[in-house]
Structure of Type I phosphodiesterase/nucleotide pyrophosphatase:
Amino acid sequence: MADTILPRYGERSLCEVTPSLFAALGAAGFDNVLGVDTASSVCLLVIDGLGWELLKSHAQDAPFLTSHAAGKEPLTAGFPSTTATSLASLGTGLTSGQHGIVGYSFAAPDLLHALPWRVDGVDARETLVPEEIQPLPTVFERSGMEVTIAAPVLQNGSGLTRSVLRGGTFRPVFALGDLAAMALSNNGFCYAYHGELDTVGHLYGPGSLAWRLQLNHVDRLVESIATALPQGSLLAVTADHGMVTMTSTVDADTEPALQQGVRLLGGEPRVRHVYTEPGATDDVLASWREVLGSNALVVRREYAIEEGWFGPVSDRVLPRIGDVLAVALGEFAITRTVAESRESTFAGVHGSLTPAEMLVPFLTFAG
């Protein structure tokens, strides 16, 4: 597949991050695949949207990060390269085909939007119980160690947090200062999350002035933590995905050929789960390929699984993957201006298999 890369599950993907870090802490039962140095405490700082290629392209805006990235090898996100899926892999150490958070939205069996944990705009935490949607133990639960989750207050008790990050003590953060303070006061394992770079990228586009200024704030945040680490502690910095600019689109809510035979449409602008009516998969596949042409890879679910996009796929997760998958290429996107009016206006998007979206940094700093 030209201009795409596959997840490096088991070697250098987000699935290996937390197990490697807990192994470095001495927790039993974890493999240190990434070769992290031994530490007495660890903080994992997740910078939402900090793609490897974006970091390299804007070195002048992030001198501290880029100086430490020189000579390093990136990781891949899993598939799709989107926040809910990636945070699930960080929290569980598993592929999307195992943990089951297979996208921004997916059939479970109702169309669940995983970040707000809503169905048709309504809170679904009682009807689609997070601990049942993702029942496998998290890395935090398996570690038996003290874990702190430092993240925005809105994530406290959210469906996604309960589903994939359970097992830690949640401590809400409100700004860069208290995020850094919590990272530095950690005595065990701290999972810290910063989301504003991704927000600015969606609204203004990656590489925009607003995005570059936000990247500079992120750079100084990392430097402020890394240069004040207590002896024996370790800071690891990674991201959930990169981002591309959305410059051309097709609207699935107004294009009749993209609606025929489709019973449910999930995913997001860069990757769509297309759930077909019984017996309609062949026709849907042909129609989507004709409309999207070279702008997207349009494949059957079976092909994506065989190629390893989702890693091992359990019987529990299989129905959540679309019968047809449409993966956008270049700077193209498949919007839904009616069902996803806000997302359809984004300047920056992610989720696909391109290097700009799939490659993320993994940098470590020792105290």
Observations:
- The CA atoms of residues 98 and 314 lie 6 Å apart.
- The mean pLDDT is 97.
- Residues 248-349 form a domain with the Gyrase A; domain 2 fold (CATH 3.30.1360.180).
